[in-house]
Amino acid sequence: MSLKKRIIAVVAAAVMACSLASCADTSYIMKANDDEIAAGVYINLMLTEYTNQVYSMYYSGNKIEGTYFDQKVDGVPMAEHLENYAYKTCLEIVAVEKKCKELGIKLSEKEEKEINEKVQGYWDSNGDYYFEMGVSKESLKRIDRYSALITKLFEANYGEGGIQEVTDTDIQKHVDDNFLRFKQIKIAKSEGDSGAAAKVMADKYMEYAKEMDMDALIEKYNAEIAEDSDSSNDSSNSDSSSDSSNSNSSSDASTSSSDSLDSSSTDSNSSTDVSDSSSSDNSDSSSSDSTNSKDDSQEESKTDAEIESEKYPNDYVRDKSAYEDDKLINHITSMALNKIELFEDDDNYYILEKLDMKERTEFAKANKNSLIQSMKSEEFVALVKELTDAVKVDKNEKSFKRYSAKDVYEKQVKYSEKNSSTAS
Question: How far apart, in whole angstroms, are the C-alpha atoms of residue 363 and residue 414?
């Protein structure tokens, strides 16, 4: 073939390729610091965030009008929220990767292997879905690598030997200044009697408190509630039992407005559990045998926080700074140490004892990682934002138009309908 014919053939092939692709490369969503971000990364970030929002809305218990996609997130239409989230996270991925490279932070071979295996697991179970949505394995891997790298970047800044290392002394001071330790019995008011029965119960246990310590009170209360529950099928008694200060309702006990633990003590969730003596007393022998037959591997899998908390089975621990407007926490803060008091709010009576947090001498060490995260999370978010703001972006507008949140959502719906009809 002559040179002229070869040139013509190459040009013809290029023209055909251009026409087939509408003269636009939509395989990438943007170039950030001259680094291409695959469209699949952007798409999957929207899909994941949409799933998170659906779960959040579903479990909120609020009534949903129309589809979840029709809803707003913090006043912003769902489509706009998803696009903003995915765009921002794409920039964060590039910013974090760049900073990690500058600091010499890398994933180990083991970490890379774990990510590859995890992504392969995604693909084995949902490969058809990802393919249909336009998400490749490499896109999934990049997102997972980012998650691992941002953790390493945090540790490089605030961990042992880090740029701004948070010392054990810093952590202990944070605990001493901000954490509250207490024990409680929570007695729910009944709407039927305007809380009269709960008041009688609370007064009775305050009388017992003149002769008994708080642990004995909790044990007696749990036993009484369990006995009442066993002797009656009345649902109100069952509700009262489940609302008592036992381990199954420990997260209920903070307040009616904020039931979950604050982020700074996520590693110490069990340290706030109230042991349920009534449930152990009422368990049958097979349950007891099962408990006693736990193998060593299960015991060894306990975290330092869990081991530490088991020494204080009736304790609740709260970061006061996360409950600034909470009446219960504010009241406990004002209490004298080791004095049992009665407190009432709109929904409950509380029998309370404030304890000395400094007696939990191993708490800071056992919960070190989560405490550092609590102490430095806002600062780290600001650092990542600063890095992200410095990223130079060249948006691929045709990709943004092609992969709008609405189009991705509709494609997902079609895929679900197609597969549900195939399954049926």
Answer: 51
Structure tokens at 190: 């009944």
Mode of pairing for the β-strands spanning 348-355 and 179-188: antiparallel
By CB neighbour count within 10 A (0-12 exposed, 13-18 middle, 19+ buried), where does 374 fall? buried
Provide the residue ranges of all domains of the chain, joining segments of one domain with +: 30-165+392-423, 170-276+304-375
Q: What mean pLDDT, rounded, does the chain reach?
A: 82
How many residues are there in the chain? 424
CB–CB of 78/70 below 8 Å?
yes
321 pLDDT exceeds 50?
Answer: yes
- Taking the whole predicted model, whether its pTM rises above 0.70 is answered as yes
Q: Is the pLDDT of residue 297 over 50?
A: yes
CA distance 214 to 183: 7
| Structure tokens, 65 | 């009008």
Residue whose tokens read 């909120």:
60
Contact (Cβ atoms closer than 8 angstroms) between residue 373 and residue 263: yes
Q: How many C-alpha atoms does 12 have within 13 Å on its Cβ side? A: 6
